[in-house]
Amino acid sequence: KKMASKIRVVLRPVKSIVVRFCPFESNVESTRKFLGCINHKKIQATNRNCEVTADVRHDGSEPLVDVMFADGDRLIMKGANLTTIEMLTALGSRCNAKELKEEQKSKKKSP
Amino acid sequence: ALSASRCALATVPLSAGWLPALQLVRRGSKAVTRHWKAMHFQRQKLMAVTEYLAPRPAIPPRCLAPRKEASEEDNGYARLLRRQVEEVFQDNRMIAVCQYNSMPDEDVVLMRRYLRKHNIEVKFVLNEIVRPVLSQSKYKNLLPLFVARNILLVSPETKAKEMLRVLKRVPQVNLLAACIDDTILSKQGVENFAKLPPLEAAQGQTVGALALLPSQTSSLLQCGSAHLTALLDQHIRQLQAGETGSPAEPTPAQGLGAH
């Protein structure tokens, strides 16, 4: 069993993250914890340019995590029925995949 | 002495083809050795007989109903923290609940300093302590807020504008809701509250709005007689001017007739 704060995500391919939730709802726990984990020193240190915004509303909408990648991709995670670890691993796997693609591209360009 | 007696046994006169079954040599190991030494057989038997047998309960414990450990959480520290939270809720007019994402320590200190200038105190709270306090007080609707790490910004005054300004500079603290004068406001509500004019200006505005209608009524009522007085004044002035110069004009009388 992994602790959510131990999962390391490399945020280099990420441009911005918007976390939207309504704190008076009851299904926002995992989203709030996700926000807390993302704001950790080490994860923020991987990419200083990534802007993490928290959008606090009161309209009963469900919790949402909107990730914009540097190459134009968009990842939307609806956190109502997801756990923190699931969200972090999903984001982490996509970031790693993009990193690999970037490395391959740069390797092809360099020789 | 023992080894000497064993040697004596060996030197007993023997017949030609009989060798002793046991040839105890003087060079034997002592009682206390560095290697494991085999116990004497009698000692082995004694040890086997006197082995420890654990007492087994008549009914194995898994057949019995599980005993619920009554969690005695009432250690004094928790009680003290709960009392502090209760006092906080009673003493202060404005209590803002914010989500705290990890911040570098210097930023925390700076933020505390800026808020202190406006008499706002920053309190770090533990959810497991705040939740029972809230559920028994009248602030039950604040219960779903206390999930994940939170801090409370408390103040006896309601300086929402300054608080929002300081929080805007700190991106890692997100305002969730606030309880101002026993009224629960969401973040939007706090922003609207901050935009309100101060109390005296609001009172002046209300008084002005209330006084508007009666003043309109009075001016309407006075309109006719005021007009009459103005016309009469004009007439008098013209008559006076006419005495010194040209004769009076009949227009003021016609104007009065038209009314």
Brief overview:
The complex is a heterodimer of chains A (111) and B (259). With 111 residues, chain A is of the alpha+beta class. Chain A is built from three helices and four strands; from the N terminus they run βααβββα.
Rounded to the nearest angstrom, the radius of gyration of chain B is: 51 Å
Biggest sheet overview of chain A: 4 strands, mixed
Strands of the widest sheet of chain A, in order across it, are 2-1-3-4
CATH superfamily of chain A: Glutaredoxin
- The percentage of residues in β strands of chain B lies in 5-15%
The biggest beta sheet of chain B reads: 5 strands, antiparallel
Integer count of domains of chain A: 1
Subcellular location (chain B): Mitochondrion
Keywords (chain B): Mitochondrion, Ribonucleoprotein, Ribosomal protein, Transit peptide
GO cellular component, one term (chain B): mitochondrial large ribosomal subunit
Family (chain B): Belongs to the universal ribosomal protein uL10 family.
Word description of this protein:
The complex is a heterodimer of chains A (111) and B (259). By secondary structure, chain A is an alpha+beta fold. In chain A, a hairpin with a 4-residue loop joins β3 (64-69) and β4 (74-78). Chain A has a single domain, classed as 3-Layer(aba) Sandwich (Glutaredoxin). In chain A, 38% of the residues lie in helices and 23% in strands. Chain A starts with 13 loop residues before the first strand and ends with a helix. Chain A has helices at residues 29-38, 41-46, 84-109, and strands at 14-21, 51-56, 64-69, 74-78. The longest helix of chain A has 26 residues, at 84-109. Chain B is α+β, with helices and mostly antiparallel strands and 259 residues long. Helix content of chain B is 50%, strand content 12%. In chain B, β4 (173-180) and β5 form a beta hairpin. Chain B is rod-shaped. Chain B starts with a helix and ends with a helix. The model of chain B is unreliable at 1-5 and 248-259 (pLDDT under 50). Classes of the chains: A alpha+beta (111), B alpha+beta (259). Chains A and B meet through α1 and β2 of A and β1, β4 and α7 of B.
